[in-house]
Please model this.
Amino acid sequence: MSTAAGEGAEAPAPGVVFRVSPLVVLVGLVLAVCVTPVAFGAPYLWLIYLVPIAVIVRTLRLRTVVDPEALTVRRIVGGRRVPWSQISSLRLGHRGRHDRTRVSAMLTDGAELPLPAVHVRDLPQLAAASGGRLPDPAGE
Model:
């Protein structure tokens, strides 16, 4: 009896991706339609189309990917992959006047890494995807 290579070996846990809601792309498209009458009213006013384009690009680019080895943050331009050994804890902070709670990773060097598209309600899923490196705040 022969066994296939890798049989019995534990497969790595898949990563979890936190993204901005794809419905925001629809908001950007509706905004583009709504600014059309204004866009051609004067020279260079067509540049107002940059706003819906920026909304759509931001929605498609921003994400946080969590896997057992590292945490990857993708921004509009660039990104950063941080191994779990460099993350000391999570920080919850308020974001502006809308009273939304922002989740950030505190690094061992004291820097703060904001986690786009991660909300407080996502913390149990984030803890599970970390492979036990972050405690589950729900205690389950």
Summary: Residues 23-39 form the longest helix (17 residues). The longest strand covers residues 87-95.
